[in-house]
Amino acid sequence: NIVLVLAKKNGISSLEQFAIDICNHFMTTFCQVAYVKTYIQEVPWQRLHEDGVPHIHSFICVPDGIRFCEAEQCRNGPLIVFAGIKDLKLMKTTQSGFEGFYKNEHTTLPERHDRILCGELFCKWSYGECKDFDFDCIWKKIRECILEAFAGPPDCGEYSPSYQKTINCIQMLVLSRVSQVQVIEVVLNNTFFNVVDMKNLGLTNDKEVLVPVEAPYGSCACTLGRKKFFEAQGH
Amino acid sequence: NIVLVLAKKNGISSLEQFAIDICNHFMTTFCQVAYVKTYIQEVPWQRLHEDGVPHIHSFICVPDGIRFCEAEQCRNGPLIVFAGIKDLKLMKTTQSGFEGFYKNEHTTLPERHDRILCGELFCKWSYGECKDFDFDCIWKKIRECILEAFAGPPDCGEYSPSYQKTINCIQMLVLSRVSQVQVIEVVLNNTFFNVVDMKNLGLTNDKEVLVPVEAPYGSCACTLGRKKFFEAQGH
Amino acid sequence: NIVLVLAKKNGISSLEQFAIDICNHFMTTFCQVAYVKTYIQEVPWQRLHEDGVPHIHSFICVPDGIRFCEAEQCRNGPLIVFAGIKDLKLMKTTQSGFEGFYKNEHTTLPERHDRILCGELFCKWSYGECKDFDFDCIWKKIRECILEAFAGPPDCGEYSPSYQKTINCIQMLVLSRVSQVQVIEVVLNNTFFNVVDMKNLGLTNDKEVLVPVEAPYGSCACTLGRKKFFEAQGH
Amino acid sequence: NIVLVLAKKNGISSLEQFAIDICNHFMTTFCQVAYVKTYIQEVPWQRLHEDGVPHIHSFICVPDGIRFCEAEQCRNGPLIVFAGIKDLKLMKTTQSGFEGFYKNEHTTLPERHDRILCGELFCKWSYGECKDFDFDCIWKKIRECILEAFAGPPDCGEYSPSYQKTINCIQMLVLSRVSQVQVIEVVLNNTFFNVVDMKNLGLTNDKEVLVPVEAPYGSCACTLGRKKFFEAQGH
């Protein structure tokens, strides 16, 4: 009920503002509450367009990366706001390899210089002291950074020597372009694609026919932050 | 292996052509085969664009309606090709009601003249004798018909007295615009949205705060075809 | 509402009887109805037991094969009742091979004489003219037949030369033991398990360490019926 | 590869021991590793039985609560082992209410003294210093505690004034019976069931016909530990 009442009274100017409102409500109303955490996820409805004209009342669900946010607060502590994107599936059909990795007696994986990189990306970042941020605008900017760092320039692309490196590029670009972001976590699952060996079938296969290998898949999670943030945490 | 070999040898000019190729292969290679059915589904990868420029090797997965097709053939029978779209989620936030329906002693549902229509659409159609159809082009045209019939004109929309009527409009529009379609089946699930009663909370709620009711939901399936098709079937 | 009212008035003596009641209601109440199909699925709640004592009001959900049924009727046609089990996951860790299969130039799969058979079974059968069947009892008996034919005797098991043959054994056993079943359809998905090649790691691997290959997987669907049934259908 | 090699070399005496082995391997082999976390989940295969006789090679998948464990270690810190159960669906058809809760101007929920309690339970606990625990035996004992505290005695059951209280009972019983458990977290989602109002249909409904309300659902998460544990953490 409280969530519905707050939606009615305050409206939802942005996901993040609504998460903050809910946190504030519980902190200020109930003195016995020691900690509040709010999670909000958007259903990705987009307005329909016909020949470029936006439709007055019709929408289509386009789940190409789901927006979410969190707000959390301990009593006597700062309000921390996180935002993120999940279920964002991306693929590079070339200019991706896996090379220069640590090898020991357990390593059987060969180096690869032209493979497919295909994965599901999860990204979550925290804002510093929340002033009057335009959360919608920042979120869109970060989504663009992710796509740009993943793909490289549209005309020539960019070589990825590993998906770990790609994750790092995404994080570096976001931190350099979006000053409000303090810490950014990225998780990328990588589904492998096998080039089918067709020799026994009397055929060559120059990376024309590939089959996805759904399990086991690689997964890499990395968290990167600004120096001052980690210093403040005592690290 | 056969599917991989055919992909390598013939390429995939369209989903439907590839389904036809697989059918033909089994029918012509194995005389003991009495019936073949092929189902192919597309993973909805779309090329990334940066500022309108298509990216050379990067893609994003955009599941706003999944394209699929089927080809089936009985020995000595015609090859029948179906195509379709599934998991297409659409919503009208207004200009939708539910009225004029049959009522008896079991009816407790009131008539509604302004509700939300929100559902997941499945649509499958059959082509007649397959000549040299441009399957990709026809599929896109049918998808546009579905959206147009669901939404109405972008500037004013169109009132839907029931989602059953909306299904019928979709089918009529496809059959009138796309001569290659013989029969079209549409299934639409309708998730209800309750306008939250806020009187006990001391608030009015003029359709501002709604809650989806995920179960039970309404579902309507309807198949519509051209007269000559059903006559040929002896109906 | 009608389903709820029928549940209240008639109770649910068995899934199948309730499906029949719903069919009958629509056929006898609405003369414009030409065809009715009912599908009912059970949520697999089982009564909790403590040291063998059944609990008076507590249940646990045990989804080891979901029971479902269908009833369908065309006006002026007979009422046909189907029952089935789905999502039944079974595994044989040995005594399973794949041999004696048709080979041509596209065959690269070697014969195997000791592999894991692991799959998800779907089974659906139709009853003949429904008299006063004890649907619950028959369903349990068929479930036992499926497990017995899949596994073989508990002390020594039974060799399966292919999962296609195992499907056939299941169908033959059900038809021989349960006279009420007219036609039985079985679908079995087979997930492969690779014995990991550990030579490059300096280790032997005598089928101790295996990895499941989730896609692509094999799938076989087969429908088997009594002779008189197919004669009646004109086949 | 390392996981496969460890499975081959050490075998898997229990999930927890295998998780510990993996942690140890990374900590002792790579001096640059600062933190390791392992998660292992069991696929719930159970040996088939025919008339009480265990089958030599056949298994059935029975997902009535999935066992998992985690092991985590920071360099120079202790190895912490967690175990748990998830996706355990339980129901009480009576002797469950919701009463005595805090009320203010936002409260519209009435007190209930006989409702259905139906939810999905997640439970995770940590062990103290791991000596030679019989992890399998402890896990089974905790599962029994959960069921016993949820259900009460089989002959008369036990009244639950709220599912929050039921969670607390589960935690208290586990901590009192299983000395190795230091902290226990329980999350219980509660799906509501509406008693259908049949007055407008001219029928009474004495809790005979109910409909589940899948969203929104209640959810409660609670973590409970021994005093000495929290003192050691500085709380």
Automatic annotation (TrEMBL), chains A, B, C, D:
Query: What positions belong to coiled-coil segments?
Result: none
Report the enzyme's class at the first EC level.
oxidoreductase
Q: Which UniProt keywords apply?
A: Oxidoreductase, Peroxisome, Purine metabolism
Q: Which residues cross the membrane?
A: none
GO annotations of cellular component type: peroxisome
Question: Which catalysed reactions does the entry list for this protein?
Answer: urate + O2 + H2O = 5-hydroxyisourate + H2O2
**Pfam families annotated for this entry?**
Uricase
Which Gene Ontology terms cover its molecular function? urate oxidase activity
What is the recorded name of this protein? Answer: Uricase
For this protein, the Enzyme Commission number is 1.7.3.3
Pathways involved: Purine metabolism; urate degradation; (S)-allantoin from urate: step 1/3
Give the UniProt subcellular location, in the record's own words: Peroxisome
Q: Which family does it belong to?
A: Belongs to the uricase family.
Query: What top-level branch of life does the organism fall under?
Result: Eukaryota
Q: Which biological process, per GO, is one annotated for this protein? A: purine nucleobase catabolic process
Q: Which PANTHER family match?
A: URICASE
Briefly, what is this protein's role? Catalyzes the oxidation of uric acid to 5-hydroxyisourate, which is further processed to form (S)-allantoin.
Signal sequence interval, chain numbering: none
Q: Which Gene3D superfamilies match?
A: Urate Oxidase
Which coarse location class applies to the principal site listed for this UniProt protein? Answer: other
